[in-house]
What we know:
Elements: H1 3-6, H2 10-18, H3 31-69, H4 71-79, H5 84-121, H6 136-162, H7 166-170, H8 183-214, E1 225-232, H9 239-252, E2 259-265, E3 275-281, E4 287-295, H10 299-303, E5 307-310, E6 324-328, H11 329-335, E7 345-348, E8 354-360, E9 375-379, H12 385-388, H13 391-394, E10 401-406, H14 413-424, E11 428-435, H15 436-441, H16 445-479, H17 481-489, H18 494-522, H19 539-565, H20 569-573
Parallel strand pairs: 4-9, 6-8
Antiparallel strand pairs: 1-10, 1-11, 2-10, 3-4, 3-7, 5-8, 6-9, 7-8
Helix pairs in contact: 3-6, 3-8, 3-16, 5-6, 8-16, 8-18, 8-19, 16-18, 16-19, 18-19
Amino acid sequence: MDQAGSNIGAGERTAIANQHIHLTPAGSGVGTLRDNYKQGLRLLMIVAGLVLLIACANIANLLLARGTAGRIQASIRLALGAPRHRLIRQTLIESILLAMLGGVAGLAVAFIGTRAILLLAFRGASFVPIQAWPSLPVLGFAFGLSLVTGMVFGILPAWISARLEPAEVLRGANRSTGNSSTLPQKSLVVFQAALSLVLLAYAGTLTKSLSNLEHQQFGFETSGRVMVSVSPAFTGYSPDRVHALYQQLEQRLPQIAGVQSASLSQYSPMEGTNWDSGIHFEGRPEGTSASWLRVSPHYFETIGTRLLRGRVIDERDTPNSRMVTVVTQNFVKKFFPNEDPIGKRFGMENQSDYEIIGIVEDAKYLDARDQPWPTFFLPLLQMTKAHWAESGLVRSNFIHDIELRVAGNTKDLEPTLRRTIAEIDPNLTVLKVRSFGEQLSVNFNQERLLARLTALFGLLALAVATVGLYGITSYSVVRRTSEIGVRIALGASRAGIVSMVLGSAVLQIGLGLAIGIPVALWGANILANQLYGVKAHDPLMLAGATAILGVCGVLAGLVPAFRAAGIDPIKALRTE
């Protein structure tokens, strides 16, 4: 048996023999990854669907405007004997052609944007487990969806064109301002405004949630800290040899220019891994469990976790000294609610080996959303002979992270670090060097992706709705040129004309807000499991979205309003 095999205990051999491999179809995807992103992807699908509806409403609006503008031409064709189904077919073909062009453009954007989305989703990852190209079935579905929406939203303009009465139109009925020809168009603008409000409110809420996650109190300091991830290969190393190696690291790393302190640990905060074991308290019959880590001297000082009582692990805590531990506030609250924990003892596997010597503030090590777990910290290599005989616990002494507190410019720090660690022991492979802030930021990739994409979709929806409002208002001004000219000739003031035109635009936005606010409140539960420190129906976000949409609506209506106020009555009265 080789050296590695000799280190496996009898219990582990039994456990290995009882293990089995469970295979799942590859088509179901990576299970953990799918579960982690499932809710977020559903939210993005809903957001994308809302943007699609807004875009379709805008296209329908354009087709309605084009159809209304061509009423005389269509009436002449009908009067000359053109069948109505031909007019419907022409309008539908135009709508489908627009949808096809949009679908082709969307496919191009999909190929360009896929890589960007993956970079957001897996920020900081050295390996992306997803092919960065859209699949053919997904592309086919998206392209087919664009065709279907083109047909669906082209039916209404086609139907309106086919219902024209040639005699009525040719008598000049299109001059009337009292008909309802623009009602469908205005209704679509109201629809766009309502959906835009929903998207803007959700984008603001997700952005605020991300900010709360990133700027909460973690229990450590990220500024001026560098994390070094290492992969130990200590098979066959004696405890004395590992101890000597750790001492060399602790002595030489702080000698590097710019490094103020250095520490070693089993795992660093928010790195993604931690240990959990059953523990037993002296004088208590029942057992429980807690999270735990092994750390070196200067660990808490280096990561910026404050000492509250007692002392931290330091150079006195060697493999040959009494076994000690430092615990967190939550540990004390859970296991010693009405007692002084200093001097109390507990241990693993029905032992009471560790004496509590200090209490540090709570810190988050795994999940930024949850409360800090009750955690205790043990000195590296401080184990009983019985524990050293168990390879499972022995592995807890192998460091996977080195923490550095640095000052000044650290641009050239990585090459020096790699060289120094290689000189100390080539078996300690450096995997990556990154700032503590970067290590923390990786944990928010999903939240950042959702917030940024929702914000992007919200801004896109706002732009489309604003353009739609501008278009329908401008179209209304063109249709009412003769009427506006008459009003000005009869003494209407410029301010009155601006107020009349702008009032129509503001009314549409107001109706959209009146519909959008209840919809946003009703659908807020969709966001509930994606938020941190903010309510799904946050009134500030809803008020902000309302204000933004209202300002954009007023600006979209001002340009046509001022254009209407500048109409020359003489030229207007000569208009058809």
